[in-house]
Specification:
The structure holds two protein chains of two kinds. Helices cover about 25% and strands about 20% of the residues of chain A. Chain A is built from eleven helices and eleven strands. The longest helix of chain A is centred in the C-terminal third of the chain and has 18 residues. The N and C termini of chain A lie far apart (about 50 Å). By secondary structure, chain B is α+β, with helices and mostly antiparallel strands. Chain B folds into two domains: about 80 residues, Beta-grasp domain (Ubiquitin-like (UB roll), Roll); about 80 residues, DNA polymerase, domain 1, CATH 1.10.150. Chain B contains seven helices and six strands. In chain B, strand 4 and strand 5 form a beta hairpin. Classes of the chains: A alpha+beta, B alpha+beta. Chains A and B meet through strand 1, helix 2, helix 3, helix 5 and helix 6 of A and strand 1, strand 5, helix 5 and helix 6 of B.
C-alpha cells in the first residue's frame, strides 16, 4: 500500500474541499472496498479524508412521505430499519443479499453506491484495463467474461457495477444528494448517477471531483410486492450473475431493474408496460441492444427466467 | 479536526506517515503511534501482540480477522486502526481465556467446531455477534418475513456466518455449537 496522510474533518463542506483541492485525495467511510483496492495498489490515494465524523447517519421521513437516508447509514442498519422493512422491502432484500454480515456492518450507503467493479481484469494489475489505467486496453473483451456486462458496454470496457443496493434504489427512483467544495448542494436522480463506460471507463459516476454524497432520498412507497432475486454462483456472499429488483402487482404490472448485466443498474421504463404479458416480452425490450460475449450470453436467458420467477412470486 | 502530516519527501519516497490513536482493546486503554496504513488487524497482532485474530486473506473474504468493535463484528483487515479513535474493541482474547472460556468457546470445544483452528477465533467472534444480531431483530437474506423477529434456525446461522470460511469444513459442528449457545435446537 502507498503511504498517505489522513484527516478527519467535521463538516461536509470541509470534507469536500479537502478532496477537491488535492487531486490525489479520496474520501473514506466504511473503507471495505477502498482498502481492499489500496492493498493491491489499484487505488493509490496519497491523502485520505475520513468522513465518519460528519454525522450523516440518520434515516428520516421526508415531507412528501418518502425517506431520507444519510450517506453514512451502515448497510446493516438500513436493512434493519423498520420503515425500510415495511415500505421498501426491495431495498432491505437487496442489502441483505450483498456481502457478508461483517462487511454490511461497516459498509455505508454512499460507499455502496461508489464501490468499484469486480471485473477480474480491473483487479489484476498485470492485465490491460482502461478503468484502472486509461488507454491500456481491455483484457476482458477477449478474456474470461462470464461475469461481465451484456449491455451498455463499449469497446473500452465491459465491466459491471457489482452492487445490489443500487439496483433496488434504481427501481425505487431514488435521488442522490451531494455537496461540493463550495458548499453547494445538488440532487442527482439515481438513473443519472452511474455512467456507462463509453470511451472513459475510469469514471464510474457523474460526481465531480470532491463532490460528497450526503444522503439518498426515496420517494413515497410504491405499493406492490417488493422482490429482489439474485442469482449467483453460491448461496451466499457472492456477486450477482443476474439480479432483479422489482415492485409488482398481482397482475404482474409494476417496475423492474436488473443488476449484474451492465456498468450501472439497468432499467428500461418503456418496457415495464409489458410486465403483465410475462417476462419474455419485457426482457426482449430491456435487452434489445444487448451485445453479449460468447461466455456471458447465458445472462440474457437468465434475466428472463429470473424476472419470470419474480412475476410468479408476485402472482402467488 | 485531527490529522496526520507528511514528511516533506513522502510523496517521492513513500516513507511511513505516522498518526496517533487511542482505543480500548479487551477493556484496556491503548495509545499507539502507527503508520497510517496499519489495519486494525495488524495493530492488534503486530503492535499489541494479540495474535488470536488471524490474517487469512487480508481482503475481507475469509473472516479469520473478525473482531467485535463497538458491539459489531467487522473484518479487522479492511479497516484502518487510526479510524478507531475511542473505539471499544473486543478480540478473541477478550471474549475468554483458557481458564474462563466464553460460552461460545466452550461450545466450540464440546462440538468439535474446528479442525486446524486457524479460522476459529474469527468464527467465534462472528458467532457471538450473530446471536446478538438475531436477538436484536436484524433480518438476514433468509428471513422469510422482513417484519417478523428472526429466529435462531440452521438456515439463519448458515447465512449469517457466510463471511467466515472454514477450509477444514467444520461448518455443521459450528452450527451445532452456536445453536446450543442460543439455547435452541438445530
Amino acid at each position: 500500500m502507498k503511504s498517505f496522510t489522513y484527516e478527519r474533518p467535521s463538516t461536509p463542506a470541509e470534507a469536500a474541499a479537502a478532496v477537491a483541492r488535492n487531486g490525489q485525495a479520496k474520501f473514506i467511510a466504511g473503507g471495505t472496498n477502498l482498502l481492499d483496492l489500496m492493498k493491491l495498489q489499484i487505488e493509490t490515494p496519497r491523502h485520505l479524508v475520513d468522513v465518519n465524523g460528519l454525522g450523516l447517519d440518520a434515516v428520516e421521513p421526508t415531507d412528501d412521505g418518502g425517506l431520507r437516508i444519510g450517506a453514512l447509514v451502515r448497510n446493516t442498519d438500513l436493512a434493519a430499519h423498520p420503515r425500510v422493512r415495511r415500505d421498501y422491502g426491495v431495498l432491505a432484500r437487496a442489502l441483505l443479499a450483498g456481502a457478508s454480515g461483517q462487511l454490511r456492518n461497516k459498509a455505508t450507503t454512499a460507499g455502496n453506491l461508489l464501490q468499484r467493479t469486480r471485473c477480474p481484469y480491473f483487479y489484476d494489475t498485470a492485465q490491460a484495463c482502461n478503468k484502472r489505467q486509461p488507454g491500456s486496453g481491455c483484457s476482458a473483451l477477449d478474456g474470461v467474461s462470464r461475469q461481465l456486462a451484456v449491455i451498455g458496454g463499449s469497446a473500452a470496457c465491459i465491466a459491471t457495477h457489482p452492487g445490489d443496493m443500487a439496483v433496488a434504489m434504481r427501481v425505487l427512483d431514488a435521488t442522490v444528494e451531494t455537496v461540493d467544495d463550495a458548499g453547494a448542494a445538488r440532487k442527482i436522480p439515481i438513473a443519472a448517477f452511474h455512467r456507462l463506460p463509453g470511451d472513459d471507463p475510469s469514471r464510474d459516476t457523474n460526481l465531480k471531483p470532491g463532490e460528497l454524497i450526503t444522503a439518498v432520498t426515496l420517494p413515497k412507497p410504491v405499493p406492490g410486492t417488493h422482490i429482489y432475486r439474485k442469482v449467483r454462483d453460491r448461496a451466499s456472499y457472492a456477486y450477482a450473475l443476474v439480479s432483479v429488483a422489482a415492485i409488482l402487482g398481482k397482475d404482474g404490472s409494476g417496475h423492474v431493474a436488473f443488476g449484474g448485466v451492465a456498468h450501472k443498474p439497468w432499467r428500461v421504463e418503456a418496457a415495464e408496460a409489458d410486465l403483465p404479458q410475462g417476462a419474455r416480452a419485457v426482457t426482449q425490450k430491456v435487452f434489445a441492444d444487448a451485445e453479449p460475449t460468447h461466455e456471458n450470453a447465458y445472462k440474457l436467458k437468465l434475466a428472463e427466467r429470473t424476472l419470470g420467477a419474480a412475476l410468479n412470486q408476485a402472482r402467488a | 479536526m485531527v490529522g496526520a502530516t507528511a514528511p516533506a519527501a513522502s510523496e517521492r519516497t513513500d516513507a511511513p506517515i505516522l498518526a496517533q490513536v487511542t482505543f480500548t482493546v479487551n477493556g484496556q486503554r491503548r495509545d499507539l503511534e502507527l503508520d497510517t496504513r496499519t489495519s486494525l488487524l495488524d495493530a492488534a497482532r503486530e503492535h499489541l501482540h494479540l495474535t488470536g485474530s488471524k490474517k487469512g486473506c487480508d481482503h475481507g473474504q475469509c473472516g479469520a480477522c473478525t473482531m467485535i468493535v463497538d458491539g459489531r463484528r467487522i473484518n479487522a483487515c479492511l479497516t484502518l486502526a487510526i479510524m478507531h479513535q475511542g473505539a471499544e474493541i473486543i478480540t478473541i482474547e477478550g471474549l475468554g481465556q483458557p481458564d474462563h472460556l466464553h460460552p461460545m468457546q466452550a461450545a466450540f470445544v464440546r462440538h468439535d467446531g474446528y479442525q486446524c483452528g486457524y479460522c476459529t477465533p474469527g468464527q467465534i467472534c462472528s458467532g457471538v455477534a450473530v446471536l446478538a444480531e438475531i436477538k436484536a431483530g436484524i433480518p438476514s437474506h433468509v428471513t422469510a418475513d422482513l417484519e417478523a423477529a428472526p429466529q435462531v434456525t440452521e438456515a439463519e446461522i448458515r447465512e449469517r456466518m457466510s463471511g467466515n470460511i472454514c477450509r477444514c469444513g467444520a461448518y455443521s459442528n459450528i452450527v451445532e455449537a452456536m445453536t446450543e449457545v442460543a439455547g435452541a435446537r438445530a
